[in-house]
Every structure is written in C-alpha cells, then in structure tokens.
Amino acid sequence: MVIDFKKAGGLVPAIAQDAATGQVLMLAWMNREAYEETLRTGRAVYFSRSRNKLWRKGEESGHVQEVREVYVDCDADTILLKVHQIGGAACHEGYASCFFRKVEPDGLRVVAEKVFDPKAVYKK
Amino acid sequence: MVIDFKKAGGLVPAIAQDAATGQVLMLAWMNREAYEETLRTGRAVYFSRSRNKLWRKGEESGHVQEVREVYVDCDADTILLKVHQIGGAACHEGYASCFFRKVEPDGLRVVAEKVFDPKAVYKK
C-alpha cells in the first residue's frame, strides 16, 4: 500500500484541486476504503468525520468530482487529487472553493461569488 | 478566534500553495501558536507532529515561505496559505512540491525534477 493510513487514526487529508485552473477547492479526509473506491471509480470519495462514514462527494447534489490525477506527498500521508468539479462548485455553501474567506487584519472577508444557491441544490 | 483548533487535537491542516503558479507545495499542521506566529511574522510556521514542536519552515535550509495571503475554509478547520517559496523548493527531498509522485495503475511514478540536492542543503 502506498499511502500510510496508520497516521491520524486511519485517516489522511486529501486536497482537491481544480485540474484546469489550479484552484484549491477543498480538503477532506480519506480512509483506505475511500481511497480505493476513488481510484476504482474515478470519482472522489471521502470519509466524513462528522457522519463517520464514506462520503461519495456529490451523491446528494450531483456535484461529483471527476478525478483526473492522484498524487501522494513525500511522507505518503497526504493525497492530492486533480479533479473536474461538476456543477462548478465544491463547497456546500455554494462557492467554487471552500476557501472563499480571506484572513485580514480585522477578520475574515468573503472574496468569492456563490456559484449556486445551497437551499435550491440541497432542498433544505 | 476564527480557526477551530479544537478539532483533531488542537491541530488543523494547512495547505501551502505557490502564490504565483498555483502549484500545491505541501500540507503541514498548525496549532494556534503556529497560526498566530505565521500571521504576525508573514512567514509560514507549522507544528511538527513528529518533533512535537513549532516548525519554522526554512529555519535550517533557509527555504522560508513568505506568506502572501491566508484563507480559511467553510468549516474553519483548514488553512490555505498562498506563499512565495524561497529557494524554489518546499520539499525536504529537494522537489518544488512534496507531491512529486503520481499514483498510476502500476504504482507511484516520480513526475518532477529536483530543484536542489537535499544532502548539500541539509548537510547530512
């Protein structure tokens, strides 16, 4: 096995980066099962720490991530996915990237526009 | 405090991305002290899980990371740094990025050239 899943309780961080633009979209977690399903299916599968189960990204919203390339870091405990984000937004809040807030001296500032309305997509 | 350091034992993942090219350079960890020193000094400071202490990136090699921008994700538990990497290489193995290995059907393949010789830089 090329990934060291023993660190951090069986979970390693996985960064999703837009394969075309280089924008960092999100960071989530993978256990061995999520990693293997990602490689097998070509769609990003994470492990949800809050729900404690596999999280097939986009299974509710349809905004799946098609995995173009997978990289591993020098310590073999972080994964980098280059993806094509269906729907144009990785963040459940409707932004292209989960990193839509910038740290400034007086606090956080939202620096992106929403791509979709979360209420409409998730029907909540 | 804008970052949720309570998750994962006081440490959150921090992604370093090249501010100019968008290349993802590395992922490391920050505790509150590392985060605050990073903001105060404008240089990336992480927390080394293996050495269990603050890690002022580049303090040995001189390859510091000048922090241009800091972003926080939607859950406020992951940090994205846009940096200028002094020396051109973030990885202690001499590569620009720690993600120099690509996952392929038959294993890992090195897909980058070394920027420096680690033996010369770290004098080991």
Give an overview in words.
Two copies of one chain form a homodimer. With 124 residues, chain A is mainly beta. Chain A is built from two helices and eight strands. In chain A, the strands form three sheets. Chain A has a four-stranded mixed sheet with strand order 2-1-6-5, covered by helices on one side. A two-stranded antiparallel ribbon of chain A has the order 3-4. The first copy, chain A, has a two-stranded antiparallel ribbon with strand order 7-8. In chain A, β3 and β4 form a beta hairpin. The longest helix of chain A has 10 residues, at 32-41. Chain A is globular and about 40 Å long. The mean pLDDT of chain A is 94. The interface between A and B is medium-sized, with 34 and 34 residues. β7 (101-104) of chain A pairs antiparallel with β5 of chain B, so a sheet runs across the interface.
Structural class of chain A: mainly beta
Number of helices of chain A: 2
Please provide the count of β strands of chain A.
Answer: 8
Shape of chain A: globular
What is the percentage of strand-forming residues of chain A? 35-45%
What is the percent of helical residues of chain A? 10-25%
Main sheet of chain A: which strands, in order across?
2-1-6-5
Give me the strand/helix succession of chain A.
EEHEEEEEEH
Overall radius of gyration of chain A: 15 Å
Main β-sheet of chain A, in a few words?
A: 4 strands, mixed
Q: Regarding quaternary structure, how should these chains be classified?
A: homodimer
Average predicted local confidence, pLDDT of chain A:
94
The interface involving the most residues is between: A-B, 34 and 34 residues
Q: Calculate the terminal CA-CA distance of chain A, rounded to whole Å.
A: 40 Å
Low-confidence stretches of chain A: none
